[in-house]
Specification:
It is a single chain. The chain is mostly helical and about 190 residues long. Helices cover about 80% and strands about 0% of the residues. The chain contains 6 helices and no strands. Helix 1 packs antiparallel against helix 5 and helix 2 packs across helix 3. It starts with a helix and ends with a helix.
Length: about 190
């Protein structure tokens, strides 16, 4: 697709990064088992209170649809940076891990500790959001949509999506600063509630 390939990869990378950063924030905000249980209880109670199970079904559909959309965006954002064999093998390994975890939960009765699960998930999703931000902006720069201000001092770190461009590095640094501020704010808030 030539230049259009970079344009498509750039926009999908940026859109995937926005979705992943939102999901990372959401996962972090639900890292407390009590908050998660309250969230599920409130949403399902609101849905049932309408007098119809249709709203509960719609809530379940929207939750699954949102997750499916995020998964598709995740793969689209990743597809431009790796070869097809690596992508397919990653999907197969992920599916195998899910089957093993499902078996352990259903047959062995394994209980997953919610707080560590949500914290690790939010960190992984945040990392991918940071990487896709850099890759998306870099794709838009290569396509000629965004300007490029390079600096020889700035590094190139492929696994982080860091490129020697101020236009891609500054948004990544802002996202990291916001994440640190959010974690600090939640820690201070939790400390003051004790």
């Amino acid at each position: 697709f030539g230049n259009n390939n970079f344009l498509i990869a750039g926009w999908t990378g940026v859109f995937a990064a926005v979705m992943l950063i939102y999901v990372s924030y959401w996962l972090h905000s639900k890292s407390s088992a009590e908050q998660w249980n309250d969230y599920i209880k409130n949403k399902s109670t609101q849905a049932i209170a309408t007098g119809s199970l249709f709203s509960l079904g719609l809530l379940a559909f929207l939750a699954v649809f949102r997750e499916g959309t995020e998964t598709v965006l995740f793969y689209i954002g990743m597809a431009s940076s790796i070869n097809l064999a690596t992508l397919i093998s990653g999907i197969l390994v992920g599916a195998l891990i899910l089957v093993v975890i499902a078996f352990l939960i259903l047959k062995v009765g394994l209980k997953i500790p919610m707080r560590p699960f949500f914290i690790v998930s939010s960190l992984l999703v945040f990392y991918l959001g940071i990487k896709f931000t850099g890759m998306g902006i870099n794709g838009l720069q290569i396509a000629g949509i965004l300007p490029t201000t390079t600096n020889d001092v700035l590094p190139t770190i492929d696994w982080l999506g860091v490129y020697p461009s101020l236009q891609s590095l500054i948004p990544q640094l802002i996202l990291i600063a916001l994440a640190i501020a959010m974690v600090a704010w939640r820690y201070i808030k939790a400390s003051s509630n004790k």
